[in-house]
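Q: what does this look like with glutamic acid bound?
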Amino acid sequence: MSDGLSGFRRIVVKIGSALLVDPETGLKADWLRSLAADVATLQGEGREVLLVSSGSIALGRSILKLSRGALKLEESQAAAAVGQIALARAYSEALSTHGIEAGQILLTLGDTEERRRYLNARATVGTLLGFGAVPVINENDTVATAEIRYGDNDRLAARVAAMMSADLLILLSDIDGLYTAPPALNPDARHIPLVEAITPQIEAMAGGAASVLSRGGMKTKIDAGKIACGAGAAMIITAGQRMNPLAAIRRGERSTLFHPAADPVRSRKRWIAGHLNASGRLLVDAGAVQALHAGKSLLPAGVRRVEGDFRRGDTILVLDETGVEVARGLVAYDASDARLVAGMRSAEIEARLGQGARGAMIHRDDLVVGRNWQDEGAVSDAG
Ligand code: GLU
């Protein structure tokens, strides 16, 4: 049997408010249970699933019995505070039936846009996945104001997919994919099953329509596609209202599949190589140079000298003993800690800095080795 999800190992699923919350009756618990069962199946196959769930404002509204009209900013934020706690509990309960723990992550824009916070958020979410838990992510609606908002969870989910090097983003929505025109406005609109690249023509098809409960229309979904596919993930847009919405994708129910533009590690490497100024330098020994060329991370043990004043997440250069640049990458330590751990073995570092101290000075995914970094990237991707 063909399976619309085969081959994907790290999957971000975005759940729109309208799927989860009925304005009259509140949480759609049966639907959530069916989603949790799908998540458990995927996890059981050894895949990782991250959920980006909307619904805090809609659920809070319903719990607080607020009228249907537009809410003021502080009212939505207060509603989100009530809704989010209920949402977290609902996910936690639904997943625990399958022996799966849920971990709540509330993000604000800076968490994915500033390199230091980005690395922190990535490490936390990665650790959570390592524990076998399912991250349940939303925007931190109670503190985010207009200028610091993602604004819609389509784009938030895409940022999360990019940040976590996911290979698939699924947008569960109230529409079963992209049409040649918004179908509500144009009865002749045709469904498009596959988008190989997001061209201006594709963008033009999106229009601007949004449903009452969710902020994102097709336009924000295409914007999400630009972020996620640009970072190397595929994207699927499909209708989520039916029970077991992920099983429905596997069965081949109607959806639109967007192909990734590049693989995630390569696009991050392109970003490292192209867009940042180095703020420090590490001199490393010959063993470390060899390890770098073999596609390994740079460990503190191989670092002879630390130069410059940098912070965790900054781009720094890696030089060999003769001062020639061999690599550049995003450093995992502030300069002062880097000086402290340079030359140390991992066990010593734990003893000095405490358990959980970061192993690599620069992780292999954050490293660009050699001048021909595009080719090098391709080699180390395979390993
Ligand atoms: N973060 C908002 C919420 O949970 C939803 C944003 C969206 O629907 O795109 O209510």
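The longest strand covers residues 10-15. The longest helix spans residues 73-96.
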